[in-house]
Design brief:
With 210 residues, the protein is of the alpha+beta class. It contains 4 helices and 9 strands, in the order ααβββββααββββ. The chain has a single domain, classed as 3-methyladenine DNA Glycosylase, Chain A (Roll), CATH 3.10.300. Strands 1, 2, 3, 4, 5, 6, 7, 8 and 9 form a 9-stranded antiparallel beta sheet that branches.
Length: 210
Amino acid sequence: MVFEINTSVYEKLPRSFYLREDVVQIAKDLLGKVLITNVEGVITAGKIVETEAYCGRDDKACHANGKRTPRTEIMYGEGGRAYVYLCYGIHHLFNVVTNKDGLADAVLIRALEPVGGLEVMRERRKFAKAKLASGPGTLSQAMGIHMNMTGQDLLSDELWVGTNKDNDNFEIIADVRIGVEYAEEDALKPWRFLIAGNKFVSKGAIKKSG
């Protein structure tokens, strides 16, 4: 089964996009880009509408903060690879590794606006009445993303982020990250970014703009 979508219109982001030092800026720049998966010939695509930035240094909310473990080892590699981890033993959460080797920054993709392969997404989501990809766990389910994709090169033909052919303009809203209350003062960092007015963002109060 192959879903017919012309992926050539979404040019892959170059490695240099991911190797930049400022993970917060990268989290903003990922908004409006298109995440694409090719799982056993089945292609799905969604516009990124919500992200969260995590820094491997001085950020208590980051998995890699102050510790290097087998789970976080991929975060310490060169930017431009996938870091997928299991949350609550159920949800597979997809992150984009950024920065240079050894620094362990990443951007969590929190919500997508489906743009291709909608029927496939509905099937994967078991025809749930909720939005298809409005949340990090649901978007991974809809896009066929699993933990076995950890380490996947984002310049591959199986999982990548492409430019948006529509080049739409939008306002970016900044807010605190979700579910990181344990991070003490770092839980208040306004490092969650959303496309203002987009109906596909996940739930959560909007507190700041910028």
